[in-house]
Design goal:
The N and C termini lie close together (10 Å). Helices cover 30% and strands 33% of the residues. The chain has a 4-stranded mixed sheet with strand order 3-5-6-4. A two-stranded antiparallel sheet has the order 1-2. It is built from 3 helices and 6 strands, in the order βββααβββα. The longest helix has 12 residues. It has one domain. The model has no long low-confidence stretch (mean pLDDT 88). It is an alpha+beta fold.
Amino acid sequence: MYFHAGQDFVLNTKSIIGIFDLDTAGASRRTQAFFRGVERSGAVVDTCAPGTVPRSFAVTDAPQNTVYLCALTPAALRRRAENGVL
């Protein structure tokens, strides 16, 4: 099943490893190290509208470990994934 993550991005629910809150998970040193690694590899995709601050991020394993920054809360992304909102 697929769901709309923001802008023109639709994600496959089967490829999602996790959806995280940037406020809580972003403060961790491990998360910051993970972000540095995926940024170096060019695997961060910003799905937010210009000028919008991301509130969450989704980590996927396809086509590689990719991080999608999203303007929606983790709860809203979860609902979309469970309901298949396109």
